[in-house]
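Fold these two proteins, one after the other.
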Amino acid sequence: MLRDGKYSMDGVSTLAISGVFMAALGIVLAGVLAATGATIAGYFLANRVFDLKYSPDPWVWVAGIVGGAVLVGVAGILAARSVVTQPPMTILRQTNA
């Protein structure tokens, strides 16, 4: 539906939808990056340091994505907490000063 020049879905603007999508994409990418790093580190430690045969574990990927989601979520909450708890006018005065 088109309202005021913007498409919306039951009152939710496409800007809000794209923001949620981008946050979810960032969380998944952080998890994939964490799982990739853990897999590569495990491979090199097993083969090069301990002379063991490496067998990849799919739970590393599950833990990486979940752990990445938790870390990104906690970091986002901590970073935005000071902005959310203050009145908007206080934030605007600080940025214009």
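Now the second one:
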Amino acid sequence: MERDKVSVIRKGTCMFKGKFLGRDAVFGDDMILVTEKLRDTSCPKTINFVEVMSLTRADLWDVADKFPDFRARVRKAQITLALRRAIVQEAQRLRREEQRGQNRQSMTFTRRFQNLRM
């Protein structure tokens, strides 16, 4: 699966992260994120023949350039998704550290996220 496109299922069924997806289901919507480590690497598995429609990141931004209001909405979604993913990843990292007894509480919030770009 290419990671720079969003896909919508038109026909068929697939399994994605333990859930069945059918007609009009969407996957790959995190293609708007720039940071690779914030993107989901899961790949859908087809149950039967699946027909999908796809939109690449380049095509999305081409359309967004023509419609400033749409571009602002996509940018807001990009920031929101990046922030959510970064918080979840940081929480998982802190939980792993706590389980190992290596929790560094002196590290500031800013330092924890300084290496992440949206």
